Amino acid sequence: MRRRLSQTEIDKIVVAQADDDSAWQKPVFVRRRRSGSFAIPPELAARVAFLARLHRRASTEEWLTRIIRERVELEEAAFGRVKRDLATARGG
To answer: What b/e string do you get for 7-16 counting C-beta neighbours within 10 Å, with b at 16 or more?
Structure first.
């Protein structure tokens, strides 16, 4: 059974092979799906536009993307903590 390489070991291999074209597979091209959209109430949209300008963002979409990403990261961290706490409480 092969052991899993650590991130550091993988990084060392990649750096060592970076200039060796024969070490790399054919490039893989991925198409981005159309971006999703959703509707928000006009009053909320106005608040978002105000805050995006306040934070000097180029667009409301850029500001919303940043805010949503931050919120998702917070939620994932909270979920991970709860999951660990439950595992610890169960003795696992």
So the answer is: eeeeeeeeee
Q: Where in the chain are the domains? A: 40-92
| Residue 51 CB burial class (10 angstroms; 0-12, 13-18, ≥19) | middle
- 67: tokens are 């805010």
Q: What is the pLDDT of residue 92?
A: 62
Any alpha helices (H) in the chain, and if so which ranges? 7-17, 42-54, 60-89
Only one residue has tokens 């959703």, namely 38
Chunk the chain into consecutive blocks of 10 residues (it has 92) and report each block's average pLDDT, rounded to whole numbers. Answer: 85 87 84 82 96 94 94 95 87 70
Q: Are 23 and 17 in contact (CB under 8 A)?
A: yes
